[in-house]
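Q: Convert this sequence to structure tokens.
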Amino acid sequence: MSAPSPRRDGLPGFDPVTRWLIVVAAMVFIMVVLGGITRLTQSGLSMVDWQPIKGILPPLSEAAWREAFNAYRQFPEYQKLNFGMTLAEFEAIFLMEWFHRLWGRLIGLAFALPLAWFVLRGYVRGRLAWALGGLLLLGGAQGVMGWVMVRSGLIDIPSVSPYRLAAHLALAIIIYLWLLWLILARTRRPAHDGTIRTHARATLALALVTVLAGAFVAGLDAGMAFNTFPLMDGQWVPDGLIMPETGWRNPFENVTMVQFNHRVLAIATLIAAGILVLRGRGAVGAARTAAHTAGAMALVQVGIGITTLLLVVPIWAGALHQAGALILIGLLIWAVFESRRPPA
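A:
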């Protein structure tokens, strides 16, 4: 069977491949939010091994649960943070991490199996086949990176490496944005509006840096400190912003600087989004809509971030903040798409 031909206006529309990509992108979105909840509930280190096949099922008997609990008690998180935890309490965090890993496996199946079918049926070929093959490899790398991250918290310090956490999140964002770009390319004809081109790209870049800075906030639990806004400990520039003994690692390991940087980057992103809105007033059609929607979402996201900070990072607010970041960068990739240069 040959692949369906595109419509005369150049847009294939919501064909089976496009609908499949939308489902996978939604699953990736949920996966990132689940990852944030796993972090917020301190569940990530409850599974102390990685069994890609056997680990699909959770413990199914009391004996199996006790075996898993006994394994957990051999590691620093139990010994230093959760000593005396009951089996019931362990089951709660274990199931959260198990579901997070299960969802990752489901994404892999939901991507790989239909991809193979679409390739065999001729729906996916050429450049699209190569792009989707690259995404499949990135998805596999993301699974490995997840275990590498978890492994860093099973050695001496009961906390994952913030560097590996940031790398894990970065891979997820690359996959998410790549999927969105493919969906846009299959469903829209870009406006090629140069009015917002530079600002859309700059705002997206700034938003991505802000999100990765947020990964270090999460990795160091920096959101639990300085729970006031706009001042930090009553100061615009707090004491301890630079620790000489930490050197070049201050932006990544100094809790004060990590939170300060995330605040500054968030406000800078909001300002950039405001400029994008102003520039978007001169744009037309979808480019204008993308610019204005992204600007509005940037304001909402900053509001969610401030609320999360003032409330000392409740789980619901932290998860909402993570979801807001994904929505914002998704809207910005739309703005970039609408403003891209026409092909030569």
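The radius of gyration is 22 Å.
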